[in-house]
Amino acid sequence: MKQLVLTEKRKVGEMFAAALEPDGSRTTYAIEGENYVITWAKGHLFELVEPGHYESSLRKFDLATLPIEPDHYEFAPIKGCEKQIDALKQLFSRDDISSVTIATDCGREGELIGRLCLRYCGWDISKDTFRFWTSAALTKENILLGMANRIPAKEKVMLFDSGLARMYGDWQVGINATRALTCRLKTGQAGIIPTGRIQGPTLKLIMQRQLERESFIPEDFWTIRGRFNAEGHDEIIASWVGFSGGSLEDCFLPENEDEDVDADEIQSRRFKNIYEANARINAICKYGMTHKALKDVLKISPHRGAGGETVQATIIGVVGADRTVSSGIRGEPGPKRVPPPAFV
């Protein structure tokens, strides 16, 4: 007699086979050895049938038929999964299978996937049926330990019921809301207006972001640029990206091209603290800026480089509104703040 182990996906099944039956023979749908037969699903294999399956009159979208609330729910194989399901039915019906271990993911969806396979394949749950349950990495040691400590499948029946309730609820929301929207909002154009528990909130988030972009008002954008000189080193022109704990290297980001630095990383660092920086700079720029005031904002002081050399920082420009500030530092027209990025 052999034990049948059902995993959620082929890759996981191969991990179990490597631990339980490393020399087992392989087919498209299972790996079999002396003591175990390891097989797998492909994620969800079954779905709830359409309303027209219960009553032919429900095939047509009609507000008068809403809400649709079946007395019971029926499942059918998902299109494209028929061969996998037929292979599972053959394995579950073998006379030499003495027990079944559900080794799908440890959670509501995993329990739902495993139990629906057993139900559809006609396996009597009152027979020897176990649950493999671990959140640890599926190493050989953890698989062997988990198989040695399997629990009776009946202990997870409430998790299966929870998965069914989630699935029924999604069906109710999706079917009824989609038909209601399609009937109410259809303007003569062909097609269905779909919605659901996940799709509805997601569309709302996208719409909110689009409205933010459309209502965005550009503002002046202030940036501080400095020239850095150190003996034995090339001059560096850098932009201030925000004060961080007094470290000069973190305050300024070099504008000179550096092949060793990723462009996306530079862009990310450049704007990391830019809005906090704007508030501090603009508060002074409104009334003119002196070198002392600027250094107070930036907290710049003589700095020692990594090699012990003295680094002198000189402010060479305030990029923002087109004006000359009181210190004599020339202001230049600055870029505009951009609206939030759109979802891709």
Give the helix level as a range of percent.
25-40%
Please provide the count of β strands: 15
Counting helices, strands and paired strands, the structural category is: alpha/beta
Q: For the residues shown, what is the average pLDDT?
A: 77
Give the count of helical stretches. 10
Q: Note the beta-strand portion.
A: 15-25%
CATH topology of the largest domain: Rossmann fold
**Strand arrangement in the largest pleated sheet:** 2-3-4-1-7-8-9
- Count of all domains: 2
Query: Radius of gyration over alpha carbons?
Result: 33 Å
Secondary-structure element order, N to C = EHEEEEEHEHEHEHHEEHEHHHEEE
Largest sheet: 7 strands, mixed
In CATH, the architecture of the largest domain is 3-Layer(aba) Sandwich
| Weakly predicted, low-confidence segments | 269-338
Q: Estimate the global geometry from the Cα principal axes.
A: flat
Q: What is the CA-CA span between the terminal residues?
A: 54 Å
The level-1 CATH class of the largest domain = Alpha Beta
